[in-house]
Amino acid sequence: MPFIEVVDLAKEYGIKKILDGVRMSLEKGDISIIEGPSGIGKTTLLNIIAGIDTPTNGEVIIGHTKIFDLSEDKRARFRLEKIGIIFQQMNLIDDLNVMENIALPLKLAGKKWKKRVDKLLKYMKIEGLKYEMPHTLSGGEMQRCAIARALANEPEILIADEPTSNLDDDNTRNIADLILKINKELGTTIVIATHDPRIHYLGNRRFVLEGGKIYER
What we know:
Elements: E1 4-13, E2 16-26, E3 31-35, H1 42-49, E4 57-62, E5 65-66, H2 72-82, E6 83-86, H3 98-108, H4 114-123, H5 139-150, E7 157-161, H6 169-186, E8 189-194, E9 205-210, E10 213-216
Parallel strand pairs: 3-8, 3-9, 6-7, 7-8
Antiparallel strand pairs: 1-2, 1-4, 4-5, 9-10
Helix pairs in contact: 3-5, 5-6
């Protein structure tokens, strides 16, 4: 049985159909790249896989859990424990420092956070930034903080929406290397939506979203 299965997923906003019968089967440990231009529906698809948004029709099954059979509260808890999300705009909280941003998911889960945050700061090589505020960070540093926050609860799945679109070539290579390291060392299943050709090589699975449907390359 696939680890993540997307079944006949459809999403409509009014009369506009964004997704139309999307089907995907992803194995545990895959790095899957979803390609397509801006505005094609990649973010919508990721948000539905993560259970942030709900489909008009269809289902997402993670492990043995049909996530839209869960109540909204249980789905939020499932996401907090199982899925780490790197948002396109990173969504760091401006009035929290780096350490506090990374600690937030742990606190929401009711877990002890200090040792875990220190470990993540070291893993991301941003130990010296723990007390810095987001507005003082470079783009690459902000992305490392966002990735650390996404990994806080040791999720089985990491979802990344355009993780390199605002980064220069050097920082893009660094983030790409970090994604490969996370996959190899932690065994995390990773789903990336991107229109950045610089990171297409990361995926052992590559999909193209077009006309509301998805095709594997």
